[in-house]
Predict the 3D structure of the following.
Amino acid sequence: MSGRYSVLKEGNNPFSSDRCLGQSHITREQSGQQQDRKREMTSKNKKILLVEDDESNRLCLRDFLEYHGYICQEADNGVEGLDKLQSESFDLIITDLNMPIMNGYQLLDALANNPSLERIPVLIATGESLTEVKQKATHPSVKDIISKPYDFPKLSQSLATLFS
């Protein structure tokens, strides 16, 4: 490929919001490769549990995380998430709030009441009002709240902060 579409070649981040083209392309590409290497070092061996009932949201998030080198496990609701947490260890939980069987708030309560799980950081991914969620999700394990649809650059920042 050549010309203005050369940024789409293999190895570039498809989740980046940076779509600028032009004279500085090589510098941006090299910078992006350095950032990708940094992310890979940060994400190496980090295991994340995704608790999300909407399959398309879960798969989108999983693809993003795996692209950046994270190891992902998935659960459709809080009960499935707790089952996985009892049998495996995780470095982070990303959970939706509105789910059947056990919602994200109930999952947070279950984590807070279990000494072996309360230390795991949680990132909430929600379509609800962020102001409202911040008022309700006051558990110390909640490290950040991101909105849906996903803002991948913000999510990358949150992950880098959590794992630095």
The chain has six helices and five strands. Residues 43-162 form a domain with the Rossmann fold fold (CATH 3.40.50.2300). The two ends are 36 Å apart (CA to CA).
